[in-house]
Amino acid sequence: MRKYVGSLIGVDQGNEEVFSDFASGGDMWTGAGSRERRKKVKFSEQFRSIPTVQVGLSLWDMDSGANVRADISADNVSETGFDLVFRTWSDTRVARVRMAWMAIGEVASDDDWELY
């Protein structure tokens, strides 16, 4: 558990299209086996320390002819951004994916002093 004492808490959020492979015949739609897509996200403002990031699917367009398999995560989280990650495997066919995210963490205050 993270505990913040006497700090400002910032919340940033977004909704990002990670890929759309149906029209272009990309490997998420036509491929098989392990596949992964990443999308870099930059926060609207830098956090003071590494925030907690929550991700979820806001749109998934999958073929109904195979099992639906998905692993989603936030990777490489820093004070300035992170990578949205979508993985699938086997014969799952994914036309497109959009992911929503929320970052919560400590942010700087206008009243903070910076000592050099």
From TrEMBL:
Instruction: Report the superkingdom from the record.
Output: Bacteria
Q: Which InterPro entries match?
A: Galactose-binding_lectin, H-type_lectin_dom_sf, H-type_lectin_domain
| Residues covered by the H-type lectin domain | 39-104
Q: What is this protein called?
A: H-type lectin domain-containing protein
> Which species?
Thalassococcus lentus
Lineage of producing organism: Bacteria, Pseudomonadati, Pseudomonadota, Alphaproteobacteria, Rhodobacterales
